[in-house]
Specification:
Number of helices: 20
CATH class of the largest domain: Mainly Alpha
Radius of gyration: 22 Å
CATH architecture of the largest domain: Up-down Bundle
Shape: globular
Largest sheet: none
Number of domains: 2
CATH topology of the largest domain: Growth Hormone, Chain: A
Strand content: under 5%
CATH superfamily of the largest domain: MFS general substrate transporter like domains
């Protein structure tokens, strides 16, 4: 049973969430400018989804590993999560400085891998941090505070290239990223490092009990119970995934020539082999290994987490579609640009930065309203309303002609974004065992990353084979996906909300 935690003050919640301000500087600059940098360095529009696969794949690998080991970390001075905050902040800041100075496309793609992995090292423990530090009645507020900082950081970061274009050159020779973008990335690197370190030095963590500390010291000696049962489950799962990978690979070989389509069967194969390896280790009586515990815990996910996985899949498929294709859509359909070095293209790309600032600004404000809406209805209904508004905003790109009207589209998307960043995590945290909070928060990232990988493997195929090169239909597809996510949220078993209502502790200040 989870130990009761004291309520934290507003400023304590502020300090423990402040690092998300800088983390979102990094993500916002990445989301709004990576396609621009890739196209500047010679990437074609239908190849962008494949190049973007670097980001979700690194998150898929890094987050559960960081979560698993942060659960098992304790340092008297640095705590449990804060060592990971620090290492990630240093590496991410360096990557942000390198990204806009990439001399070639392959270097930019490689830097995206490093940058996304580094940001994930810092970001993943922040989600578990809320579960560690806050009682159930304050968790919606805690994740909403993170949404506020995410929105605020993204507004400023998204506007930086737009603002800097007044002071620095906004165009550059072919193959060179403009100065306005480069200086925006430098500011982002500084902000990320400073804000994360603010959280590191202003927040303290609850120390483990004597019993928990003893478990941490002897973690390499801990073996699973019911080893034979777990071995059979892992073996069946591994064989099923390998078989699915082979079938998917044969299907792709028959129907498609898009190289990124092979990523999906490749991912299934890797996961299948991981489960088979874990089964082998149990057979060798080495069930104390981390890979075994991670594989078994993955199969034992709480029911609420499985239900939320479906919601997350459709939500993040929509978001990834937007991040990849908003720049190509706006520059082509609203600014009628064809030359990536020309003024029209760079003006359109700057407008995308402004639009991204709008939706993140709306998200920062909506974050304060979400706990109130959830209190008077439910978290599920609040999420449904938010995602329907976001889906309508994405689909509206097809019907509008004046780029100024896209601001209205971004209002709906901003409300959805605030909800996506807060409500699923608030619902999830109440269903997780406290000693596995970091790991399951990392695994939950699978259901953010997998739809991004699916988007990265399918969107280029859809643009070329189904949409006849009309990228605007990708955003319409994303809108439909987000509405489906909203409807699926009504099926989620929100145990934490039931607990809060039963205790009568509805308010979180």
């Amino acid at each position: 049973m989870e130990t009761a935690k004291p309520r934290l003050s507003f400023w304590q919640i502020w300090n423990m969430s402040f690092g998300f301000l800088g983390i979102q500087f990094g993500f916002a600059l990445q989301n709004a400018n990576t396609s621009r940098i890739f196209q500047t360095l010679g990437a074609q529009a239908d190849d962008l989804a494949a190049y973007w696969l670097a980001a979700p794949i690194t998150g898929l690998i890094v987050q559960p590993i960081v979560g698993f080991y942060s659960d098992r970390t304790w340092h008297p001075a640095w705590g449990r999560r804060r060592p990971y905050f620090t290492v990630g902040a240093i590496l991410a800041s360096l990557s942000l400085c390198l990204m806009p100075n990439s001399p070639a496309l392959w270097i930019a793609v490689g830097t995206l891998w490093i940058m996304d992995a580094s940001i994930n090292i810092s970001m993943e423990p922040f989600r578990a941090f809320v579960g560690d530090m806050l009682p159930p009645a304050q968790r919606t507020t805690g994740f909403a505070m993170q949404s506020f900082f995410i929105g605020t950081g993204a507004v400023v970061a998204s506007l930086l290239p737009y603002v800097f274009s007044n002071w620095f050159a906004n165009t550059a020779p072919e193959g060179v990223v403009p100065e306005s973008v480069r200086y925006a990335f430098y500011v982002g690197a500084f902000a990320l490092f400073v804000t994360v370190m603010w959280t590191v030095f202003s927040s303290k963590e609850y120390p483990p009990t004597a019993e928990q500390l003893e478990k941490l010291r002897n973690r390499e000696k801990r073996k699973l119970e019911k080893e034979d049962h777990h071995q059979k489950r892992l073996m069946r799962t591994g064989i099923g995934l390998v078989a699915a990978a082979l079938l998917a690979g044969l299907f792709v070989l028959e129907v498609s020539v898009e190289r990124e389509m092979y990523v999906l069967p490749g991912g299934l194969l890797i996961f299948g082999l991981v489960f088979l390896l874990a089964a082998l280790y149990i057979r060798q009586r080495r069930s104390y290994l981390g890979i075994v515990h991670m594989a078994v815990d993955f199969l034992d996910m709480p029911r609420t987490m499985v239900q939320l996985a479906v919601v997350q899949f459709f939500s993040w498929f929509a978001l990834f579609s937007m991040w990849i294709y908003t720049t190509p859509v706006v520059t082509r359909y609203f600014y009628h640009a064809t030359d990536t070095a020309g003024k029209a293209y760079n003006d359109g790309a700057d407008w995308v930065n402004f639009l991204f600032a709008v939706y993140n600004g709306v998200a920062a404000l909506a974050a304060f309203a979400l706990p109130v809406i959830a209190r008077y209805s439910s978290r599920r209904v609040a999420h449904l309303i938010s995602l329907i508004l976001g889906g309508a905003g994405l689909a509206s790109f097809y019907f509008l002609q004046d780029p100024n009207w896209l601001v209205l589209s971004m209002i709906g998307i901003g409300i959805a974004w605030a909800s996506i960043l807060a409500i699923p995590y608030a619902m999830l945290s109440g269903s997780l065992p406290p000693e596995k909070m970091g790991y399951y928060m990392g695994v939950f990232n699978f259901f953010i990353v997998i739809p991004q990988i699916v988007a990265g493997t399918l969107l280029g195929f859809l643009v070329n084979q189904i949409f006849n090169g009309e990228t605007v239909f990708v955003l319409v597809t994303g809108g439909i996906s987000m509405i489906i996510a909203g409807l699926m949220s009504l099926r989620v078993d929100d145990r934490d909300e039931v607990t809060v209502r039963r205790t009568g502790n509805h308010h979180a200040h």
